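The protein record filed here.
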Amino acid sequence: MTPEDIAEQMDGRLNDGAALLPSPCVQNHAAFLARLPGGDLACAWFGGSLEGKSDISVHASILAEGADAWGPVAVLTDLPDRSEQNPVIFVAPDGDILLFNTAQPAGNQDESRVWMRALTRDGDKLVAGEGRETDLPAGTFIRGALTIRDDGAWMLPLFLCHPREGARWTGAHDTAAMGISHDDGQSWQVEEVPGSLGTVHMTPVDLGEGRMAAFYRRRQADTVHRSESGDNGRTWSAPAPTDVPNNNSSICAARLPSGRIAMVCNPVSAALSGARRASLYDELEGENTRPDATGGCTPIWGVERAPLALCLSDDGGRSFPVRHIVEDGPGTCLSNNSLDGNNKELSYPALLPRADGGIDIAYTYHRRAIRHVRLSAEDMRRIAG
């Protein structure tokens, strides 16, 4: 579809279990799904003209349980001089709804700060309260869901875009970490994951009996990596490769009621593609005259972001023999532009299991829209074989 064709279908209506969410923005990216108190589904994402621009802000829509269309769009953030990205919605144990998101100037991820604000429900829309910066250090980014440790501590997966004096961020020095809060998000301590250079978008999954696994995107565009914790997330092993390729794009994983691990991703790597671009923020490089950071790992950008696949594991996420194509396409992502029709990515998935045995998936569709796909319990049984 052309960008104009996509825009005409962005009405939020479910058709055969799929919808393009409504949005007034020409660029929509980085969906996050959360179940609200009462069971309704919320999707948050960032939208505006171009990733990194100051008009990028967080938007959200609600799909009421049993409804056949997503509700109206709410704008949840609006800093005038920052690109506000990567929303994470968290429903606290007391029922409060919180939004965490990043805020950065232009493409300078090493200057990003994490913000936090309360959300309330006003009929069919979410309403944001006043935001505040957390005390997480500059260069902190988020993407994965927040979880509660067995002692009540909040665990927020982080990746750290370590600032390099006088140098521009490239992703070469990014590492993974866990943010820990013992006071309901008022203050945070950062605990780094060992051996995690280039390993980002940490997605923890509870395996039961104090065991956890976490899954990672890789700047090196080689394979999805995995680490383990045997103490409810207090310490983590160094990330190690799984058998699923990764293209330096986001992943999402969750444990299903069956005990299987489900992961949605683009199972393609740099070894399988010659597509390359200079950096994530090619279109913004005129706004940053610092030289690129040196050292660290060698990030690879531009590998196709398609197909979008649902991968299933029966061994705690060590291997994923079942790989079901949710949607396929060219996956071209050599530019972030949403209007010229050249971007064809199917990327940045969010995954949320349903109580009835099905799953909800949301992802970026050609940088123009957020697409929602619902797989039923029968779909999941068929996919699992």
Remarks:
- Residues 113 and 137 are 7 Å apart (CA to CA).
- The mean pLDDT is 97.
- The longest strand covers residues 113-122.
